[in-house]
Amino acid sequence: MVSSKGWWWIAGGAGLVWLLSRQPATQHVIEAGEDVVTAAISGWKNVRDGPLWVPVINGAEAQYGIPPDLLARVAYQESHFRPEIIDGTVASSAGALGIMQMLPLYFSSVRVATPFSASDTAAQIQQAAAELARLYGVFLDWGLALAAYNDGQNNVSKYLAGTRPLPDGTITYVTDVLADVPVPSARFNA
Questions:
Q1: Does the residue 99 lie in any domain?
Q2: Do 79 and 152 fall within a single domain?
Q3: Cis, bond preceding 115 (omega within 30 deg of 0)
Q4: In a domain, 189, yes or no
Q5: Tens digit of pLDDT per residue, the chain (190 long)?
Q6: 97 strand-pairing partners
Q7: Among candidates 126, 136, 154, 32, which has minimal Cα distance to 81?
Q8: Same domain, yes or no, for 56 and 6?
């Protein structure tokens, strides 16, 4: 049983959430919280447009020999399957675009007009799958391939040579992906 004081706390919290949801600057924070709740309840594959794109990504994984759900989990890490990120109308602070958050400087599939069409997004998935498979071929380790996808092949090579540490963000990125999709051949140690 909730006391009358407890009800005031609940009502106040609900009022604060409502007030914050009306502010454009906090809208993305609330949406991110909703995504976390959805992922916790029904799984990361079911967040926003995940049910639409995970099967397409799984097909690319099979085509390129990527462990099941690894590239799909990368897509979730990159875009949280948010439609406005997937269609390219929202770019990252670094200028990365699309479901796989690819930089136009390096990836032709995101050098097309926005909003991206479904076929543009499918092309991005194919290009990202080819890149992740290529990185695995370089490092022979899925964890290091993920680190290179996030931080760049040259930076991971410098890390392996002992001349540069991996950024905390990259360590978190790889750890989060592998926590949801454990891959036996990933020997990533940061």
A1: yes
A2: yes
A3: yes
A4: no
A5: 555 555 444 444 444 344 444 555 544 555 566 777 767 787 999 999 999 999 999 999 999 999 999 999 999 999 999 999 999 999 999 999 999 999 999 999 999 999 999 999 999 999 999 999 999 999 999 999 999 999 999 999 999 999 999 999 999 999 999 999 999 777 777 6
A6: 102
A7: 32
A8: no
φ and ψ at residue 67, rounded to 5 degrees: -55, 145
Determine the Cα angle at 41 with ends 128 and 20, to 5°.
90
| C-beta of residue 147 within 8 angstroms of C-beta of residue 160 | no
Same domain for 70 and 17:
no
Quote the distance between the C-alpha of residue 90 and its chain's center: 14
* Residues forming a β-bridge with 151: none
As a whole number of angstroms, the distance between CA 59 and CA 42 comes to 22
Q: How far is Cα 125 from Cα 118, in angstroms, rounded to an integer?
A: 11
- Structural domain of residue 16, as residue ranges? 1-42
Residue 103: partners with Cβ closer than 8 Å, 6 or more residues away: 94, 95, 96, 97, 110
Q: How far apart are CA 30 and CA 181, in angstroms?
A: 26
**26 in a structural domain:** yes
- The sign of the CA dihedral 91, 92, 93, 94 is negative
